[in-house]
Design a protein that fits this description.
Length: 234
């Protein structure tokens, strides 16, 4: 969060070329806002950047891996003819494109706006992936926070009016990892001591984190539940 990987080609080259050599890596995801905010990056010099990404994906495929481009769109007004062209060209040339959208107060909390957004992007060939709710609690974002209840209402509208293929998963980033509401995660209870804190069930286990952390003593705001997975404080 807080960077645009596609504007620094040498860094992107180093990252992709390095990741291709790691055996267990399969998908290399590149998240970008440039498709909506800076389409000229892709289309200038006769679509040179699109060709570059297609070539990088071919390199990955030769090594049993692939590139996915995660595009960030918030509102249908961001979808231009140019952005549709970029998505279509990438998909046509074998580069997977998926959409993830932060749920932002005053911008896209209405189901009809989200539905129109996902419909347009899906028609261009993008896969519909996540709505992040609420938006990440980082400096400067508080005015955009909308309640999780609002996102449930928006999702209900999408369920009532759009195809399942055009409906994203509703996701929240807890202190120990992402959960998808009503599948891998749900609210359990309010904390008895801190009424502002809610415990959310996650699919993660101590054993999972021990694979790469060693000790799980440093995991923030977590507890083991009766089912053996971890609840996260939120």
């Amino acid at each position: 969060t807080g960077g645009e990987p596609l504007v620094n080609r040498p860094n992107l080259d180093a990252a992709v070329d390095g990741l291709v050599t790691i055996d267990h890596v399969r998908a290399i995801r590149i998240a970008t806002c440039s498709v909506s905010y800076y389409p000229d990056l892709f289309l200038k010099n006769r679509n040179e950047y699109i060709d570059y990404l297609v070539e990088k994906n071919a390199l990955c495929l030769e090594n049993g891996k692939y590139i996915e481009i995660g595009i960030h769109f918030v509102h249908p007004d961001e979808v231009s003819v140019q952005s549709i062209d970029i998505i279509s060209q990438l998909v046509k040339n074998g580069v997977q494109v998926y959409v993830q959208t932060p749920f932002l107060k005053g911008l896209n909390t209405e189901g009809r706006d989200l539905g129109r957004l996902f419909e347009l992007l899906r028609q261009a060939g993008a896969q519909i992936y996540y709505i992040f709710t609420p938006c990440s609690p980082i400096h400067g974002t508080k005015k955009y926070w909308a309640s999780i209840a609002d996102s449930f209402r928006a999702l209900k509208y999408l369920r009532e009016n759009f195809s399942d293929r055009a409906i994203p998963k509703l996701c929240t980033a807890t202190p120990i990892g992402k959960i998808e509401w009503n599948t891998s995660g749900w609210a359990v209870e309010k904390d008895e001591q801190d009424k502002k804190l809610v415990w959310i069930r996650t699919p993660y286990t101590n054993e999972y984190f021990e694979q790469f952390m060693g000790s799980t003593e440093q995991l923030p705001l977590s507890r083991i539940n009766a089912g053996g997975t971890l609840d996260a404080g939120f």
